[in-house]
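User: I'm putting together notes for a lab meeting next week and I want to include a structural view of one of the chains we've been expressing. I don't have a solved structure, so I'd like a prediction I can at least talk through. The sequence is below, exactly as it appears in our construct file.
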Amino acid sequence: MQINKKSVEKLCSLPDDALKEKIRAAAVACGADGDAAVSKLTDLPALKRRLSSLSDAQIKAICQAVGEDKLNKIKRSLDDGSDG
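Assistant: Thanks for the context. Below is the predicted structure for the 84-residue chain, given as structure tokens.
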């Protein structure tokens, strides 16, 4: 999976529960507490709007800031069960 505007929009189209599971998996893949990460998600519609408004350039900049190792872990976690 390449992380770009199209893939972000696909994630944003998931039902809230499925998106939460993707976020939990990505957090765990990076060594964070998945439950703690999900507990911070108080306004999923706002999060989806913000993510959907990102440009490809902004997504690329975020990916570069995350670093290749963590980005690869996130990609793998998003690919697992990617149908939601």
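A couple of points you could mention at the meeting. The mean pLDDT is 90. The chain has one domain: 5-79.

User: Perfect, that's what I needed.
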